[in-house]
Amino acid sequence: EVSKLKKITFIGTGYVGLVSGAAISDFGHRVICADISKEKIRQLNNGSVPIYEPGLTELLKKNINAGRLSFTYDIKKAIRDSEIIFIAVGTPEGKDGKSDISAVKSVAQVIGENINEYKVICTKSTVPVGTGDLIKSIITEYNFDNISFDYVSNPEFLREGSAVKDFLWPDRIVIGSENKISLNIMKEVYDPLYINDKPILSTSIATAEMIKYAANAFLALKISYINEVANLCETLGADVQDVAKAMGQDGRISPKFLHPGPGYGGSCFPKDTKAFAKLSKENGEVMHTIEASIQSNENQKIRMVSKMKTLVGGSFKGKRISILGLAFKPNTDDVRESASITMINAIKNDGGLINAYDPVANESMRKIFEKVNYFNSWEEACKDVDAVAILTEWNEFRSMSIKQLKQIMSKPVLLDTRNIIDVKKLKAHKFIFDNVGRGIKNNVN
User: Fold this and answer.
1) CA-CA-CA-CA torsion for 314, 315, 316, 321, nearest 10 degrees?
2) DSSP per residue over 379-444, as a string?
3) What is the pLDDT of residues 277-336, one digit of tens each?
């Protein structure tokens, strides 16, 4: 059994690298998480975790204490000391929507320069289809001693907010490889999951790269679709929540991602849909559905702004508005592409004032908007405001006392972009309110 345990290095300690590295060390492998940021490594070595992700702190602690998990900024040494190298660096949105893979390329060069024996090089970062060939050619170019290596694509399907759970209980593991040797080595990495009878899908490298984009874009498409249905429900007086529930009971459709809201955000859907659409265009195939989804999502964020504007009488000027929820979804402190950014910008630009509260994302948002007034509870954030907008469906907002909310606000005006507040309660307390697709407004004008 012991021989199956591997020496593994993860390059990049963002969401993907940190969660994957910690989880794989939990399987018994020896894992080094490497990053060029000395500050990040210093933090990790001091026991602090740079991201908020349920269960991650405990997982890191357990495996650091067991001596299986360590952190370093000496990437070269980490490469030389390991049998498997996972590339898990960021691939942000670059110019005109393309995926910026400059970090992936520079990692490939460092791997080429430091390869000292046969290794499996595996990409976890989300990279455009065809990047595998590019990475192989870069490693080969700098691999002066011609040491043999295999390249594998192993995309991640982690959801922020439940990433640890997703890694340890995955729906599937996709391994794109070119031969049996590297495939078997990767199977040994995931061996403990294999015991739980998790399907490992073995594909070509390009297919593995494609699966990641196709899956993410489809989920984004589902969100855009239900948002558009919600908007039509508003016009026709139907209730989208009943519509989505009935749709979701059809096994072919499933209820997941059929929740209307203020538009998707986060670190994946916005950039992955754009990169997928761009990649298609460059290869002479236009993805009309994905392009429409991107456009629809932008429209949805703007639509929320105009709903808010209508509720406060047509202008934000001089109005104080409370934003509840800054993260793009609950259980994360990630505010990237969050719908609240669009809302805050619009209110500020129109001369309005902002109070904001999020259970964990205040500090992340402070980096974008310094001048907003941040509070440590919804009660403080809603005191004496002219209106409230709920933009993230944190549980504590679901259970707010509507009676208390009315008492502390200067005017009872509420925009519920996540449909989490009981409409009957809002009516009972004579709120002026709006939501998404429920065909129920109460504009006491």
Assistant:
1) -20
2) HHHTTT-SEEEE-S--HHHHT--HHHHHHHSSS-EEEETT--S-HHHHHHTT-EEE-SS-S--B--
3) 999 999 999 999 999 999 999 999 999 999 999 999 999 999 999 999 999 999 999 999
DSSP one-letter string for 281-327: HHTT---HHHHHHHHHHHHHHHHHHHHHHHHTTS--TT-EEEEE--S
Whether the CB-CB separation of 128 and 20 falls below 8 Å is answered with: no
Q: Calculate the CA 371 to chain-centre distance.
A: 26
Please give the pLDDT value at position 191.
86
Neighbours of 363 (CB within 10 A): 13
Active site (annotated) includes residue 268: yes
CA triplet 403, 409, 415: central angle to 5 degrees? 80
Query: In angstroms, how far apart are the furthest CA atoms of the chain?
Result: 77
3-class DSSP assignment, residue 36: coil
pLDDT band at 1 (very low <50, low <70, confident <90, very high): very low
Residues 386, 390, 396: CA angle, nearest 5 degrees: 115
**Which pLDDT does position 440 carry in this prediction?**
66
* CA atoms of 11 and 9, how far apart (whole Å): 6
Alpha-carbon 202 to chain mean position: 25
Question: In a 3-state reduction of DSSP, which class is residue 172?
Answer: coil
Per annotation, catalytic residue among 33, 122, 268, 382: 268
DSSP 145: T
Mean pLDDT of the chain: 95
DSSP string, 229-291: HHHHHHHHT--HHHHHHHHHTSTTT-STT----S---SSSHHHHHHHHHHHHHHTT---HHHH
Of 18, 45, 288, residue with least CA distance to 167: 18
Q: State pTM to two decimals.
A: 0.92
pLDDT, tens only, 208-266: 999 999 999 999 999 999 999 999 999 999 999 999 999 999 999 999 999 999 999 99
